[in-house]
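BACKBONE GEOMETRY TOKENS
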Amino acid sequence: MALPQLIPSHSSSSLTHQPSINPNAANPYPMLKSFLKPSSLSQSRRFHRLSSLRASASSFPDNHQTDPSKPDDVVELPIFPLPLVLFPGAILPLQIFEFRYRIMMHTLLHTDLRFGVIYSDSVTGTTDVGCVGEIVKHERLVDDRFFLICKGQERFRITNVVRTKPYLVAEVNWLEDRPSGDEDLEGLASEVETYMKDVIRLSNRLNGKPEKETLDLRRNLFPTPFSFFVGSTFEGAPREQQALLELEDTATRLKREKETLRNTLNYLSAASAVKDVFPSS
């Protein structure tokens, strides 16, 4: 039987496939894990190798102009284009072996340990909204490669490219969610958590796993960080994740996640019913 997939809340031409959900993602709250094929799953658990970034810098022009009178809220940040989306609070393991990024690591390990992660792929190119990754643990190997464990921090928007060699450095502005007015954020977060638990329960059933009670997914998180955690579990759908990361309203983000999870739950319910009728499917 085909593995279940997320059904996005917003149909978009930019999405070339349906996102997957990850019930045990490698993040600070490992509760959700995607229905990936075994080969894809083993790949997602390995350190992300940065060899795929060799062409990423070409997305930015070499000729650029910096504004000498930049505002105080604009900062310079070294940038990693990656084929993934980092959310605030999420954990990202990386293996650094390409020469220019080893140069970056030597610089970062003697400064503030922070760099920007932006999503990049061959179809949509490089985005201008990303998330700061802070190095929380590192190991330098004898051949000058690095193993890193990073944690997502603030979101940012690139406003200007300072340079592209030996690695990308950009000026960025910080992004924060706007106040949600009269929206019941706690209520929305609770609804999203309920849908997540139901999706995990049904997906475990479809995969022949025990339908044990799901633990507290929120872990006392406020609605905004919880919405980022939910987005981080939508592995296999980086463009949908990027759309969630770019939203600047917690209520809108939670509503979109709720609709996606509700559609997915409907799909899983139908798949479960089919399995009951045709157990060998």
